[in-house]
Amino acid sequence: MTILNKTIILGGSFDPVTSAHTQLIYNLSQRFDKVIIVPCKLSPFKISVGADTSKRLEMLKIATEDINNAIIDTFEIDKEGTDYTYITALHFSKTYKNLYFAIGSEMIADLGKWKNISLLSSLLTFYVVPRPDFPVGEKELSVLNSLVKYEIADFVGADGSSSEVKISVAMGKPDLWLDKKISDYIKKEKLYTQFVFVNDLYKRFHMKETRILHSFSTALCGVKLAKRWGVDTNKATIALLLHDIGKYVTREEAESLGVIFDDRINEMPLPVQHAEIGAELLAQVLKIEDKDIVEAVRWHTTAKPGMTKLEKVVYLADYIEPLRSFPTVDCLRKQTAKDVELGFISAIENSVKYVGKDDLYKITLDAYNYYCNKETGNEINEK
């Protein structure tokens, strides 16, 4: 039902305009008198955009051509300086009363970082749209209640984000998260190809089709975890797509390519060596200088004490991605949906139970003691 005499602002990079965006715009248009779509020029939370301004605007025009009360406004694109929502709200509050601002539930965790959030809350009401895998639970409601005026939408937003589109383009499946007209436009303009390079690496390092599908599924799962943990999605995507790059490369083959291993690999059981091999292929052969990505690949199978959030993302995504099938995986997914840190710790506990403490690689045992018995101090002694 339309909220009379009320206007809602929908901001974002729209890079690209996904089917989730299109459905959101339509749903908002059915509930508000006017939907003002404000594409940003430079978001303070994003380093860059993938398509230039004219192409993002063209995609928005395609997406809104049949929605009469949706208006594309270039205020943020036209003005000087960094885009901040409070400046946008000040601008539109001069013309429109009863302003709302639409956000997805995945954005709640970062609301405390928004500039002048108190002023922003005095100018408008946040209209929070629940998104798949980003529930609005007690924790999220606590954040909202402490910071802003808000209403929860009476519908759930569709799945699919710009990060997932870029992964799907890389895997040759661009239509997964896009309406056909937008997909055709992206293909014509050859947009969002920054991760396509992984396909050459898959061929170079003998990746089997089943392992490529696993990497694709892990990446789609992992970018959602990255957003919930506040991890850079570009870094996460590269690490996720390449986490198993050493799966079919033997130590001897890697050494023939010039890789030098330290003594750690001699202590590793054969099933976990591929992570070490993959990390060193990235660092020494492919010359990837970002150590965060390399280390996330290195520890994605064994875990270790004191992991970074990126390392946790890759470890957990690899463990619970949708193609995985083992007795406790659904339980782990449900725990992760409630709390990503709980899901991560539960995955380590599950790994210990599956392998058995006596046969566990030492680093995994250390990780178990670090994360699972940290508070109690009841460490499991290595045999």
Can you put this structure into words, describing what you see?
- The protein is built from 18 helices and six strands.
- It folds into two domains: 3-160, 3-Layer(aba) Sandwich (Rossmann fold), CATH 3.40.50.620; 197-372, Hypothetical protein af1432.
- The protein starts with a strand and ends in an 11-residue tail after the last helix.
- The longest helix is centred in the middle third of the chain and has 21 residues, at 209-229.
- The chain has a six-stranded parallel β-sheet with strand order 3-2-1-4-5-6, with helices on both faces.
- The chain is 48% helix and 9% strand.
- The protein is globular and about 70 Å long.
- Mean pLDDT is 91; it is low at 375-383.
- With 383 residues, the protein is an alpha/beta fold.
- Helix 11 packs across helix 14 (291-298).
Descriptive keywords:
single chain, 6-stranded parallel sheet, 383 residues, Hypothetical protein af1432, 18 helices, disordered C terminus, Rossmann fold
CATH superfamily of the largest domain, by name, is Hypothetical protein af1432
Work out the number of β strands. 6
| Backbone CA Rg | 23 Å
Measured by DSSP, the beta-strand proportion falls in 5-15%
Concise summary:
The chain has 383 residues and is of the alpha/beta class. It has helices at residues 19-29, 53-64, 75-78, 85-93, 117-123, 138-147, 162-170, 180-189, 198-204, 209-229, 233-241, 251-256, 273-285, 291-298, 309-320, 329-338, 340-355, 362-372; strands at 3-12, 32-39, 70-72, 99-104, 125-129, 150-152.
Record the SSE blueprint.
Layout: E1 3-12, H1 19-29, E2 32-39, H2 53-64, E3 70-72, H3 75-78, H4 85-93, E4 99-104, H5 117-123, E5 125-129, H6 138-147, E6 150-152, H7 162-170, H8 180-189, H9 198-204, H10 209-229, H11 233-241, H12 251-256, H13 273-285, H14 291-298, H15 309-320, H16 329-338, H17 340-355, H18 362-372
Parallel strand pairs: 1-2, 1-4, 2-3, 4-5, 5-6
Helix pairs in contact: 4-5, 7-10, 10-11, 10-15, 11-14, 11-15, 13-14, 14-15, 16-17, 17-18
